[in-house]
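Section 5.1 Outputs to date
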Amino acid sequence: MSKFDEIRYFHDHEVNEALGSIARDPMMKALMSFTFPGVDEQVWLEQFKEVHSISDFQHHFVAHTIRQILAKSSEGLTTSGFDQLDKNTPYLFISNHRDIVLDTSLLNLVLLESGHIMTASAIGDNLVKRNFLNVLAKLNRNFLVQRGLSLREQLKSSQNMSEYIDQQLHHENRSVWIAQREGRTKNGNDATQQGVLKMLAMASGDQSLTDYFKALKIVPISISYEYDPTDSLKMPQLLAQHRDEEYIKGKNEDFMTMLSGILGQKKRIHIHAGHVIDKELDDIAANVENKNKQLQAIAQVIDDSIIKNYKLWPTKYIAYDLIHNTDTYASQYTEQEKQLFIRRLEMRISSSDAISKEYFLTMYANPLINKRKLEENQF
């Protein structure tokens, strides 16, 4: 038994048996019918028998699924910054988080197609309670973030995960993807939780915080969807916060959100890889002594990169102008784009629900507002 067994993804020698265990699951049939429309079930069942590694599974099946998702529910994926990364170096990608499945799946498709090292990716164990999803996640090199633990168990789990991430980067030569915060951003404000950085630092041993973070080779990732396919699904939680009420998820809410994210219309998508955080860590080491303040400063560096490199689609400008009843950014979108966005708003939010409408628009406008603030602060 390894201490990582509770959270790790499958070893290659386990892959064939694990895939066989879910091959005839109705959800697998639905997934493969989507990926390979018109192909007889027996064809891919036979092909599954030849899969003996995660790499086999990702190359021959998962990549095709993601390409189909892009073809059917988007107007294409563009990227920037990846040409600045070394193809043989493992990186810790710290990303803003908008979609449960797609954020990391799209990044890995980019890494696969550009010849970079693909990631081991963190996923909350609450999202993979169903056996099929649990096995599929581990076949796709996801490791589990354990949720709902007592404070003492949480500390132990965080230590374990920190060591696992360190092992992946420094011993397995494997890149790692982790969201900048627990859970998806619901309001469009991309902000790194210090708790995530504290967890990462737990494996630092005798190294200084900044030296250890340099060794992690952190690359901030900015992912931007023109339309958020789960935009209206985020409203109930925002309304609960507005009313200062506890939000309790529905039984199948996470699963339905995953499906909506995969199948819902996203229009254009852009992913930017920031530069490796390095010199900034030297500056923090030289000017900030307190460890908590160092963590704050590192979080700020990550946030600034994500916000600065976030692609502002027309929907962000439209939402801003609608909230403020202005045409400040009218040059950034067409009248047709504006009418399409208004139509989307009307279909998803009741005209009598002014609070939800405001939250919906603010969610789209906040990346623009945050980028403006960042630019103002730099001058």
